[in-house]
What does this fold into?
Amino acid sequence: MTDLIATHLTPDELDDWLAGSLARNREAHLHGCADCRRLADADRALAHLLGTLPLFSPAAGFGDRVMARVEVRRRARPMAVAAALAAGLLLPMAASVGWSLANPDTLAQLLQGAGSGISGFGVATVRSLGSTLLAQPWYPWVRGLFESPARLGLVFGATTVAYAGGVLVLRRLMALPMPRVAHVQG
It folds into this structure.
């Protein structure tokens, strides 16, 4: 308790003193401490000076004028974004079409080389995946699931139910209410 009395007043306690609600033990400290008393008197004088200042009240329609400017800026931004996206998509496409029209032989050679390279890569990928799948220790068990029509129906049924459940969960998540945004009214 003596530690609390020995410490100087905090700004919150000075506010309490001005409001007349400072605790008694802190009031005793204020009367016994010259530093806190000087600070409290200066705080009281400042509060008195601030109280004599005229209150500021904006002109009629101030809120409406501010909100009108906010609305104009908010409407202008989507147009700027749309223009930037259109320019970002259309300009490179136009440049590509222009280059393609100016260089048809080079384009044909590039496409022919790319086509053969992609098809060769695709065949190699399918062979690699197939041989890797056949080498797995669990492959005979999975293959056994597809040997009879009844098992095949069960597997496809379970897959369909799992897919439908996922779609329903996704639809439910997409239907959750969106948080509302507060709007200022003028």
Remarks:
- Residues 137-176 form one domain.
- The radius of gyration is 39 Å.
- Residues 78 and 88 are 15 Å apart (CA to CA).
